[in-house]
Amino acid sequence: MIKGLAITPPVLGRISIGRVVEKNGKRLPEKDDQFTLTTQVQQQGNWIIHPLDEEYRKDAPGGKLRSIPVRMLFNDPDLNLRAEYSMFDRQTGRPVCVGNGEKCRRFTQSGVQTLECPSPLLCDFAANGGCKPYGRLNVKLGDDDEIGTFIFRTTGFNSIRTLTARLRYYHEISGKLLACLPLQLRIRGKSTTQSHRSAIFYVDLTVRDGMTLTQAVIAARELENQRKETGLDQDALDAIAKEGFGNAAFEFGEEEIPAVLEEFYPTGEGHSDTDAESQTSRTDQPTASHQKARLTEKLDRRITMQNQH
């Protein structure tokens, strides 16, 4: 295995909940309330729609694809969804710094170094606002390829937080049979003060329509027994996948550059069409340095009030 090359799940297509529109000569992100499945090929600046998109959309109410039947490739939740604070070079789309809120891996003049990661709110290196949570979720769609996946990329807090919780909960409650559970991705909507009470959309993970959690766990146990009888080794798959992810300092491939630029820098150097909720968070959001100053001001005010009492 080539050292320094992250070995990631084979990707057959993309899942997005946003779209790109052209305004004043610029391609800008626009929120949407449905999924779109695309290939990894672009034509005239647009991603080509995947055949599964039409297949699933036929049975969708009103033709809007708001849920997709999926299975996880791995039992380990952290292998299915990798989420970290990430900063990319605005011009090249290559990773500059990736961290988890405690430690980060950062490109420096001395090479890749492991440093403290205080999170974007308190990080001077992230003062320009370029560091955001970045999640990659790989899921299996259809039955044509047992190892191939579709990838959903997001910088949205709501999607990352919800998907992380669901994956961990389903993993434990099913007896660690996450890869055998019949699940579905679902579009959710909410309004917040940050969105000025307008609707934003994010991705959730639930058991499939028409099934209870108990029924889903029973189905997972039956599938697990079938796999064992045929000799499929899920534990070995998880182990080799973990080794592959850890084979490089960053989970990154050259083919990911267009998607990174779209998601992180939609109005200037790139475009965006991946996660509608993240479009709201990009607007009217203070930079890290402003947030740090505001937090310091609040703490000073609280200390003053305590001293007065």
UniProtKB/TrEMBL annotation:
UniProt biased composition (Polar residues): 277-290
Annotated region (Disordered), positions in chain: 265-309
InterPro entries named among the record's database cross-references: Gp3-like
Bias type Basic and acidic residues, positions: 294-303
Pfam families (UniProt xref): Gp3-like (PF18897)
Listed name of the protein: Hydrolase or metal-binding protein
